[in-house]
Amino acid sequence: MYRIEFDPFYELELEQILISIIAEYSIDFAEKVAASLDAVIQQLKEYPKIYAVYADIPIYRK
Q: pTM for this structure?
């Protein structure tokens, strides 16, 4: 199993995105988006090659 490393601004950016979703839609929808994102991140621990690498930074995946 692999370890996931987050960009230092991940939590701040995620919070801003979720606040925008809440403002435009609802808290319920924002929670679903957050849960979906968390599921994808957890999936990366077991299947790290399911997404393409960045062309300019090949050690990171999209």
A: 0.74
